[in-house]
Amino acid sequence: MTTDAARAAEILADHRASIDRLDAILVYTLAERFKHTQEVGVLKATHDLPPSDPAREEIQIARLESLSKSAGLDPEFAKSFLNFVIEEVIRHHKKHKS
Ligand SMILES: C=C(O[C@@H]1C=C(C(=O)O)C=C[C@H]1O)C(=O)O
């Protein structure tokens, strides 16, 4: 391997180590989020509240849009990611109800 190629391999390995650490943070963060939403699901089922709350979601989307802009993340991506997560949460809440 040339010195350049060896250096590139080193940089690639460093980036991948960071990516692996961040993926672990994402997984643990999501798991923590789902623990709270599961508790919310139990509360909603107990008190006969609807599984979804579109007004709350609207506030969250607006907040995430602003956070994404300051973080340098594509706000559209952040929005579809949050919607994807919320969809799963609501699916869980509906299960609590049945
Ligand atoms: C967790 C809740 O239930 C649903 C899921 C949400 C979420 O995952 O952030 C937000 C609103 C609700 O549609 C809630 O009402 O707070």
From TrEMBL:
It holds the Pfam family CM_2. Keywords: Isomerase. It comes from the Bacteria. SMART domains: CM_2 (SM00830). One of its GO terms (molecular function) is chorismate mutase activity. Residues 6-97 form the Chorismate mutase domain. InterPro entries: Chorismate_II_sf (IPR036263), Chorismate_mutase-related (IPR051331), CM_bact (IPR010951), CM_dom_sf (IPR036979), CM_II_prokaryot (IPR002701). Its EC number is 5.4.99.5. Gene3D superfamilies: Chorismate mutase (1.20.59.10). PANTHER family: CHORISMATE MUTASE. This is chorismate mutase. It comes from Psychromarinibacter halotolerans. The lineage of its organism: Bacteria, Pseudomonadati, Pseudomonadota, Alphaproteobacteria, Rhodobacterales.
